[in-house]
Amino acid sequence: MLNELQEIIAEKLGLSAEEVQPEKSLKDDLKADSLDLFDLVTELEEKYEIEIPTEDLDTLVTVQDVIDYIEKR
């Protein structure tokens, strides 16, 4: 799952997959803004056939948070 998410996040943010590590903060370390995060959530919802409610977005701080969230769904 990590490799797959690294590719998706890297593509959305214009980074290399190596830069997208589990401990990295989406906003602070990877410089994702609110539009980037919206696009990312939309793609993750489609790819993994899940719904990520707006109120859950605040819990998705790091790459690992995203992995954990998807694995629980």
TrEMBL record:
Keywords: Cytoplasm, Fatty acid biosynthesis, Fatty acid metabolism, Lipid biosynthesis, Lipid metabolism, Phosphopantetheine, Phosphoprotein
GO biological process: lipid A biosynthetic process
Keyword Transmembrane: no
Gene Ontology terms for molecular function: acyl binding; acyl carrier activity
Any Gene Ontology CC annotation: cytosol
Domain of life: Bacteria
PTM per Swiss-Prot/TrEMBL: 4'-phosphopantetheine is transferred from CoA to a specific serine of apo-ACP by acpS. 4'-phosphopantetheine is transferred from CoA to a specific serine of apo-ACP by AcpS. This modification is essential for activity because fatty acids are bound in thioester linkage to the sulfhydryl of the prosthetic group.
Modified sites of kind O-(pantetheine 4'-phosphoryl)serine: S34
InterPro entries: ACP (IPR003231), ACP-like_sf (IPR036736), PP-bd_ACP (IPR009081)
Pathway where this protein functions: Lipid metabolism; fatty acid biosynthesis
Carrier domain residues: 1-73
Intracellular or extracellular location(s): Cytoplasm
Family of this protein: Belongs to the acyl carrier protein (ACP) family.
HAMAP family cross-referenced by the UniProt entry: Acyl_carrier
Functional note: Carrier of the growing fatty acid chain in fatty acid biosynthesis.
Protein name listed in UniProt: Acyl carrier protein
Organism the protein comes from: Hominifimenecus microfluidus
Highest classification ranks of the organism: Bacteria, Bacillati, Bacillota, Clostridia, Lachnospirales
